[in-house]
Specification:
Length: about 150
């Protein structure tokens, strides 16, 4: 299935809005592990939003056992994700962001992956705190950035 860029551009200096997806993915198995993540997506030229009816649209070869949380940023770019798993070994969560910032004419989506620090993980049913990811400036080009075109 092809992924179409659903961003809209409004002329005369009005806000550009782009579709965006953020996934929190568990890579290893864990007992009862909990992640909370909050942050903001920054793009100097636009606000960012997510379409609430998209489900696993941006995950290639999804293994339902690997996804901790999926969500969308608010119109102002802020986001909050919370994920939980109950398996035997520690987890190594990653934050994946799919977007078209500074790239709206290219097909597909830019994909940026961040490894979350251990302090973002709580080994309990409820997290001790929420990890603040700060402001992530998506106009920058990130090392090892990829492009996603299709979902298998």
């Amino acid at each position: 299935m092809k992924i179409a860029a659903n961003g809209q551009q409004q002329e005369h200096g009005q806000t550009q809005r782009r579709e965006l997806s953020v996934d929190l993915e568990r890579i290893k198995r864990g007992e009862q592990w909990h992640d909370e993540l909050a942050g903001e997506i920054g793009d100097d030229r636009s606000s960012v939003y997510w379409l609430s009816d998209s489900r696993n649209l941006f995950i290639r070869n999804p293994d339902p056992d690997d996804l901790l949380s999926q969500g969308y940023s608010a119109q102002n770019g802020s986001f909050f994700l919370e994920g939980k798993t109950e398996e035997g070994t520690p987890i190594d969560p990653t934050l994946k962001i799919y977007h078209n910032c500074n790239d709206e004419l290219e097909p597909g989506y830019r994909k940026v992956v961040f490894t979350l620090p251990d302090k973002s993980i709580t080994r309990a049913a409820k997290p001790n705190s929420t990890f603040d990811a700060g402001v992530i400036q998506l106009e920058l080009e990130f090392k090892d950035e990829e492009r996603e075109f299709t979902v298998d």
